[in-house]
């Protein structure tokens, strides 16, 4: 058995012309999240607690597209979704269509632990949130100046398609986005395009957990997230290890190469013996990882 | 090589004491639907068309838990979901939270063919249905007296009832519809003589489910999956099927471990918690299998060489 390991991401598919100071901000946030996770792991928190804690932090910071800072629908509102999974017992919870819950990932965990179901959506999920007494906020809380600007740009180009999409429940952490992020439906995008945040952790007892949260896409492209659904990407990393005997990095490389067809995506993964791996075929992915033996890396480009 | 088709009307706790007349109604419907599928395959319709046609027919039948006959949420409403997938292209479409669309499976196919997305839910899915002009009906169309009674019983027992769970028995209570009170998901898988594969699954979910609950049926890889190896439709306890990525795992075992269809399906169903899972699957080579670890599953299949079978309980067939 290896030690603990952790990886975080802020989405795949980054504008190559992203200003330097934005890149630094992103790296600082990823570093802060990693450190949060690391100190939690050192104080023997379980993997499931750590992924929830880290994703809450990513949701609460407006930088990436989840929680506060989520991309806007055509109506200028925010609709979020999240999923969490505990490797031990394969327990999982997911939520979609969330408009007032401050931390969707924590609601997903409550679905896993306090409901007989795995996946709740829209008004049913909001009703469950009220019943559970989680912190709710006005929808305006989630909306940032940057995203209002992006929506305006998109509307001017008349290229909005309202996003009704629902993600896959109960998966490991993976994220997908725009292939050439300079252009999003023909629009120049110089702020953060990526779709999703996530965290995966294996704790020192070998328990794995994953959490993913997103505000969805401001503007529907051909749907890179769809390539992830079709390719059952996260499950296939695990299936390749389980059924084909590949190691973690080989499995990650295989799914990025073979399971995405023409879709662009990235993913992070940890194994129960303390390995950590990532892969992406997009231009860049905001990511960071650390292991118990002292290794730590935060990067954006290949 | 040759065509093959299998369909199911749900897995769950189906007692062998099931009253004959209840059993016969369902068996007749299953036989009728199988014949529709066989005729369509013989007429060289694509497997994608075949699974859609067969599932539409099952949705229209009030004794199965999909479309008309869907079980009720804790609020007494229906919320239907469905998913369809084409094996060779891996194109797929799914819908959840439908309340007025007469045939959810056909809306799932429209999501696949007319949108850049895979999965639409709730208000957005209903809006898309209106835009596409599919047949819509008042939600009372879907609600049957049996399902109102089922919900009442489930509420009394304060639980969500699984597919086919035995109704609550009390001496002072007349069991409403002993043995068939819980009706399952429906599904169909088909392959033609060229190895083209397709799958479709449709459901009303669980009796007394929470409003907004999404199950395994519309989750690609959980309740429904097809690729160029096989097509799979699963039924049973949705939460267990999601966790086990049941349908994808049958395909992954063939793809990554080289197992045969039968061995892969058996491995997956035996590995799932007892009493949770049944599935039907066909392979590109025209093989068919229908394993279950629940006490029963309404199921039937046919292959081009003339083999055909219909069964409810385990051990009745080669599975």
Automatic annotation (TrEMBL), chain A:
The record marks 195-196 as: Cleavage. GO terms for molecular function: hydrolase activity. Pfam families: Asparaginase_2. InterPro entries: Ntn_hydrolases_N, Peptidase_T2. It comes from the Eukaryota. The active site is at residue 196. Heterotetramer of two alpha and two beta chains arranged as a dimer of alpha/beta heterodimers. This is Isoaspartyl peptidase/L-asparaginase 2. It comes from Fraxinus pennsylvanica. The lineage of its organism: Eukaryota, Viridiplantae, Streptophyta, Embryophyta, Tracheophyta.
Automatic annotation (TrEMBL), chain B:
The record marks 184-185 as: Cleavage. InterPro entries: Ntn_hydrolases_N (IPR029055), Peptidase_T2 (IPR000246). It comes from the Eukaryota. The keyword Protease applies. The active site is at residue 185. Keywords: Autocatalytic cleavage, Hydrolase, Protease. Signal peptide: none annotated. Its EC number is 3.4.19.5. One of its GO terms (biological process) is proteolysis. The keyword ATP-binding does not apply. It is an enzyme of class 3 (hydrolase). Substrate binds at residues 213-216, 235-238. CDD domains: Asparaginase_2 (cd04701). GO terms for molecular function: asparaginase activity; beta-aspartyl-peptidase activity. SUPFAM superfamilies: N-terminal nucleophile aminohydrolases (Ntn hydrolases) (SSF56235). It holds the Pfam family Asparaginase_2. It catalyses: Cleavage of a beta-linked Asp residue from the N-terminus of a polypeptide. PANTHER family: L-ASPARAGINASE, N(4)-(BETA-N-ACETYLGLUCOSAMINYL)-L-ASPARAGINASE. Heterotetramer of two alpha and two beta chains arranged as a dimer of alpha/beta heterodimers. This is beta-aspartyl-peptidase. It comes from Fraxinus pennsylvanica.
